[in-house]
From TrEMBL:
This is PH domain-containing protein. The chain crosses the membrane at residues 20-41. It holds the Pfam family bPH_11. InterPro entries: PH_bac. Keywords: Membrane, Transmembrane, Transmembrane helix. Residues 55-176 form the PH domain.
């Protein structure tokens, strides 16, 4: 037997009413929580920058950087204390991720970063390079990152780069290691000769 039309109409009007006040309360609460977490992260970033305030200004590119040996276009993914891939360095703009143009010369490594502070790593400050898969906040496949280790202000630093063409990474590792070894040998020889002259 077919139910009366009045019953069908009543059934249609008996749908549950949305509690908009409760929904708005949940959305506002979620937004407040997200803003609070963001504020905590920002405070942590500032605190870390204060702790690293003793890091000297980064060297600028010399007027004559020398003949380019290698160049690379890609991304700069950040810097950490050498050997501690989670200990991010944020002072002097080193915590800012950005596009990067790298040029290696006999004078050192020139890092040009659109929208962020450029810096130059003198050849004497280079300590080597390797392939790795991660640096603070960024994890890639094995060998996906080019890590350049250098010294500045008495601190050993690992800086992570990724080329737009990852097959360039091995050539960079070889070239940086060769340059850093040559510079280290030269400086050791000069130091020995100076000590001998005394």
């Amino acid at each position: 037997m077919t139910p009366p039309l009045s019953n069908l109409a009543a059934a249609q009007h008996s749908a549950p009413v949305t509690d908009w006040a409760a929904r708005i309360g949940w959305v506002v609460g979620l937004l407040v929580f997200v803003v609070f977490v963001y504020w905590l992260m920002r405070q942590g970033w500032k605190w870390r920058g204060t702790l690293q305030g003793d890091l000297p200004e980064l060297p600028a590119t010399p007027d004559d950087p020398g003949e380019p040996q290698l160049s690379l276009s890609g991304r700069y993914h950040g810097s950490t204390t050498a050997g501690q891939w989670l200990d991010r360095i944020v002072a002097r703009g080193l915590g800012t991720r950005s596009r990067a143009e790298l040029t290696l010369t006999g004078q050192g490594l020139d890092v040009v970063r659109p929208g962020a502070a450029d810096f130059f790593v003198p050849a004497a400050a280079l300590r080597g390079a390797r392939l790795d898969k991660g640096i603070a906040g960024k994890v890639l496949t094995e060998g996906g990152l080019l890590i350049v280790t250098w010294e500045h202000g008495g601190r050993q630093i690992d800086s992570g780069f990724r080329s737009d063409r990852a097959d360039e990474h091995p050539a960079w590792v070889e070239a940086v290691n060769r340059l850093s070894t040559t510079e280290h040998t030269t400086s050791t020889t000069e130091h020995t000769e100076t000590e001998g002259a005394r």
